[in-house]
Write a structure and sequence with these properties.
Blueprint: E1 21-24, H1 34-40, E2 48-55, H2 56-61, H3 65-75, E3 80-82, E4 87-89, H4 92-97, H5 99-111, E5 119-124, H6 126-138, E6 144-149, H7 152-156, E7 163-168, E8 171-178, E9 183-187, H8 188-192, H9 196-213, H10 215-223, H11 225-229, H12 233-253, H13 270-279, H14 286-303, H15 311-321, H16 344-352, E10 359-364, E11 367-371, H17 376-394
Parallel strand pairs: 1-9, 2-3, 2-4, 2-5, 5-6, 6-9
Antiparallel strand pairs: 7-8, 10-11
Helix pairs in contact: 5-6, 9-10, 9-12, 9-14, 13-14, 13-16, 14-15, 14-17
């Protein structure tokens, strides 16, 4: 008589993550030790090797940046070693879509023989940080990645997450990793050098986190909309700092930084936004698409009796006062099967988070509510509402 015995043991361990998020200005001024201190930490006896990869838009806006970095490292040459002159590559969705650019970054890490105690420093917007973070995470199973975000969007949102991703197969962030950065350093001076469109785009994430988590912050954004629309430095810095804090708190309090569950409150408005980005071939910036997505889901929240009537208009008015346009013709685009293209965003969102649909709507300004189904007819009704608002504004 054969008896098959099954013996199962379980491996169990915990890994604690801790990384600094610093706020400063004039980061690469030799009198500012923030960058040097961040990389050296307590290991001041070692010379730390690093490469710097810079978003070409940042390099154009800050033409002295590459030389500033070289001068800075030279000043602190006892502690830092720049193994190659800073490399400038295209930023924006181009870098997330282009396989050859990713391979170029990979080859750079191979050629410079960086090890897991070296640093890959990315200076740019969220797309560049995502891509460099992804490549760093898969090289040697993880080379230390330092994020230096240069946009409002990246400083206030994506830089403090543990996600890295690139676009593949006509889907946003189809490939990626959950890998925390070694450190994040925000330099407010980069914000001042941004084009106005990028400054406006980044504010969408501040409104998003206020809508789902902090009504007092939403009130503050309404009260200071005129200053924000003029990019007042004090108002911009407070907005970025508060937005960063709320995103960091959410990651900790939700206790799911690696998204093993389905609810993702920080993705309010994103199911439509990701689809709009794809449909417009990324002519819409991420924040611009998120603004439309939030307007759509705010109206949908009212139609589903989650949110009081009039609150949707309040959300739209704030977005418009900050400079967002809440309409794009891609909302009316159809597939060959005569189905609405925007609705594919729901299934893609569903797939991305494990097959169990969970979308955050609003039950109040400052309070999100998760739902597990979306009514297509009411989504189309919400789109009609946005279309009507747009026609009234154009009249």
């Amino acid at each position: 008589m054969n008896t098959r015995l099954t013996d199962t043991v379980y491996q169990s361990f915990q890994v604690n993550y801790r990384f600094p998020v610093s706020f400063t200005s004039k980061l690469f001024d030799s009198s500012n030790p923030t960058f040097k201190n961040t990389l050296t930490g307590r290991d001041t006896q070692k010379k730390h090797r690093l490469v710097c990869i810079i978003d070409d838009g940042v390099a154009a806006a800050c033409p002295s940046l590459t030389q500033d970095i070289q001068n800075y490292v030279s000043t602190y040459s006892e502690h830092l070693h720049l193994v190659r002159k800073p490399v400038v590559i295209p930023g924006g969705e181009t870098v997330k879509n282009d396989t050859e650019l990713r391979q170029h970054i990979q080859q750079l890490l191979v050629d410079t023989r960086l090890d897991r105690h070296s640093y890959v420093v990315a200076i740019g917007g969220g797309a560049l940080l995502d891509t460099v973070g992804f490549v760093s995470a898969i090289a040697h199973r993880g080379i230390r990645h330092v994020r230096i975000p240069t946009t409002v969007l990246a400083q206030s949102d994506s830089s403090v997450s543990v996600k890295n991703g690139v676009n593949c197969y006509d889907q946003k962030n189809y490939m990626g990793t959950f890998t925390p950065p070694f450190a994040v350093i925000n330099d407010y001076d980069f914000i001042a050098a941004l084009p106005d469109r990028d400054k406006i785009s980044g504010m969408a994430e501040a409104i998003k986190v206020a809508l789902v988590r902090d009504n007092r912050f939403f009130d503050w954004l309404e009260k200071h909309h005129a200053k924000l629309a003029k990019f007042d430095p004090d108002a911009m810095q407070y907005m970025i700092r508060r937005c960063t804090e709320l995103h960091m708190n959410e990651i900790v309090q939700n206790n799911d930084p690696f998204e093993t569950g389905s609810p993702r409150p920080l993705d309010f408005g994103h199911w439509a936004a990701h689809r709009l980005e794809t449909l417009t071939r990324y002519k819409l910036k991420h924040g611009e698409a998120v603004a439309i997505g939030m307007a759509l889901d705010s109206r949908y929240s009212v139609l589903m009796n989650h949110l009081k009537p009039g609150a949707d208009e309040r959300v739209c008015q704030l977005l418009e006062r900050l400079g967002f346009e809440l309409w794009n013709d891609a909302l009316l685009q159809k597939e060959k099967t005569d189905t609405w293209s925007i609705l594919r965003g729901i299934s893609e969102f569903n797939e991305q988070f494990g097959g169990e649909l969970s979308i955050t709507l609003l039950s109040d300004l400052g309070k999100g509510v998760d739902v597990n189904a979306m009514d297509e007819s009411r989504i189309l009704n919400a789109i009609d509402w946005l279309s009507y608002r747009q026609s009234q504004m154009a009249a």
